[in-house]
Design brief:
The structure holds two protein chains of two kinds.
Chain A lengths: L1 H37 L4 H6 L8 H11 L5 H13 L5 E2 L4 E2 H36 L4 H15 L2 H15 L20 H35 L2 H8 L4 H23 L1 H15 L4 H10 L3 H29 L1 H9 L1
Antiparallel strand pairs in A: 1-2
Chain B lengths: L9 H4 L17 E5 L27 E3 L5 E3 L2 E6 L5 E6 L13 H12 L10 E8 L2 E6 L7 H6 L22 E7 L3 E6 L12 E5 L2 H10 L5 E4 L11 E15 L24 H10 L2 H7 L5 E3 L21 H10 L12 E2 L2 E2 L1 E7 L3 H14 L5 E7 L1 H7 L4 E6 L5 H7 L17 H12 L3 H12 L15 E14 L2 E2 L22 E2 L2
Parallel strand pairs in B: 1-10, 1-11, 16-17, 16-18
Antiparallel strand pairs in B: 2-3, 4-5, 5-7, 6-7, 8-9, 9-10, 11-19, 12-18, 12-19, 13-19, 14-15, 20-21
Classes of the chains: A mainly alpha, B alpha+beta.
Chain lengths: ~325, ~525
Amino acid sequence: MALDLLNAQLLRALASRFARLVLLLAAVAAASFALMAASPVDPIDAYVGGDIAAIGPEQRAQIAERWGLNDPPLERFATWLSHVARGDLGHSHTFNQPVAAVIAGKFLTSLALMAVAWCLSGVIGFVLGLVAGVRRGRWADRVITWWAYTLASAPTFWVGLLLLYVFSVSLQWTPICCAVPVGTVASEVGLLDRLHHLLLPALTLSLVGIAPVTLHTRQAVTVAMASDYVAFARAQGERTLGLVIHRVLRNAAGPALLLQFSSLGELFGGSVLAEQVFSYPGLGAATTAAALGQDVPLLLAIALFTTVFVYVGNQVGDVLHAWLDPRIRRLKEVR
Amino acid sequence: MTAVLVGVGVTGCAAGVDDAGSGAGKPVPKELRLAIGGESEDGYDPTLGWGRYGAPLFQSTLLARDAEMNVVNDLATKHTVSANGLVWTVDLRADANFSDGKPVTAEDVAYTFSIAARSGGLTDVTALAKAVAVDNDTVDLHLKRPQSTFVNRLVSLGIVPKHAHGKDYARHPIGSGPFTFVQWDEGQQLIVQRNENYYGPKPAFERVVFTFAGEDGALAAAKAGQASMAAVPAGLAKTAVPGMKVVPVKSVDNRGLMFPYVADTGKKTADGLPIGNNVTSDKAVRQAINQAVDRQALVDGVLEGYGSPATGPVDGLPWYEPSSAIEGNDPGKAKELLDAAGWKDGDGDGVRERAGVKAAFTLLYPADDTIRQGLALSVADMVKPIGVEITAKGVSWDVIDKRLHADAVLFGWGSHDPTEMYHLYSSTAAGVEYWNPGYYSNPVVQHNLDAALNATDQDVAAKYWKAAQKDADGNGFGPSGDAAWAWLVNLQHTYFVSDCLDIGKPQLEPHGHGWPITAGITGWRWTC
């Protein structure tokens, strides 16, 4: 009986979150389409580029027809919407491929990059924050805080270029471009090759996320360390290491976790830049190409995809935070 | 044109050494790596425009252009044009096979042209009415209207196999070209393999890898010794890269100043955009500016030496008329022209006036283009002493689109196809797209342009193209005639090339830096 009630509650919560997601997607799609429609970039001009003098009006008409640009915007949006409802995301003219195939291909590459960067920034950021918070005011704290502020104010692409020149050009430890070794056929590319190519872009991307996690964790640790229960435990003779593991860790993990999950959007934005610098062919690079070429179906699909990605990330963060910190759960029940 | 040997570094290496290599005894590397960009994001299907620059690699074309830009046979053994210019008959060679072993037939050629004519891609074959395979090795291409420039479709359209041209062709191309497709990692690299069954001269390298890492990436790859060639912007060409030389390649990638040709009478386009400018509509002003600019100084100052003075849109191509050029850089003559036309500085402010109109106008350039910015600002400085005031303004293309019929604009063009020249100066193209934004029109020039387009023989066409620039009576759109534009410079495209790689004599490149260099790739040799 109680289990049924719990299940019903869970279902209702899921349904409400799902409904919110659908509404959000609709709003994102409409807004993105409106922005694209209002954009001054002419898709045919963008496609034709330097060949503009060699392409006559008849040919332009053919291009417009191939892409279905002749219908009024509202009609195009409606057609697109009805196709999406049937599961057809359309055809990307930039890549001359179905949108679903483009996203599937590029996302797998991006996912590896973002996952590694995300884990790195979470772990490094949390550990640094912990050390800084525990050693508050000492030299370790000062160095870490200074480092965090430096990272927070350094643009990703600049850090990327710097790393590229130091490690790839000067030291030649890491490759200059791409996700696979140059000149090697796919069947001969091993896991180690892929990791080798992933290393520098992932490191660059992780730098975006480290600073906020470090600074928030440091703050949470400081608060916990100053609390009565830590003072009490210390009075009972508990050492600093034990204090951190038993009393502080869980308290400090909440903000870090929440922040980490809500940073998925920034992670995605950062990946656009990192992929550009390292010629890493992920979804970020595809987004740039789609935007510059006014590839409406692809750009809309990427916008929707990112929305789902970020939304799910935030929801997972929410749930995990509640699980980690019972006070949050109780707060919700009261509400 | 023949007198000028292209590239300073090339000649030193062009010893004509054979594949086997000399001296050091090191074998030719099996693999050649090039960082010259040029990825075709929508794949490698010629009917969508792949291969219109440089080499189509996988496919071959009916005709080709040699280093001097002469039309030579490739898949075709002969082509003739009917007297009315409407039927092009092409005879094919019999020994050409696709990389899947099947022969290249007239059927394939007819199919390729028919598909390209309605594909909505980046190759304009809309002049084609129908393509008919007469027999196994003869094709008739029927045109809707005579078009001498159709020869460029025969030069640039790679032939695809009818039996294997499906949905995924663009990602798995099959053709009769010098290379076969191995692998394409999108956004990263293209790997191609030498086609051992190619009918033409075989490339020296078994495998070629093209990396698509952008300009920074290309330079980084060159510095790290990971590429035998890298396309870099001229601004970076001064960097020293060990083991590599800088090869500047001449181009018709030109930059010039487009003048609104008609006076401002309040007329507007169908979209309500203003047309005309009361200063630039005066021939004396246009000619004076053409006289006053020091083009060599622009090359040295703005292009850092990587370029040449430009006086027309087709400098150095077979249809260029050298006598249409002017020496330029003669402010004295410019002042005379303005004085004679009645432009005088009455109020002593350094700017001339005539009938209450100041000799001043705005010059627009796309703000994100530093070369055009440099050119615009320099030109403004150069015409100041002759009493003409140019206000150079960096704006977005959006603004240029609205003002291009009323303000001067710094444009860049350059094509191997004289169609572009036709569009820039034909009154039929006035106000269409970016073609003839100044509404230039001259019946004599128009007559020559049309005669060139309608010609059935390329030499006759070239004669009329030349006459459009300057004819026997001195008429023409060139700087010595109507001076419809003030052409400024032709860029040189700069490449880092390995000291061991001999790329022969490159073609004069069109607008677009990078991929066009592959036009001669089958002739590249390793010399170490």
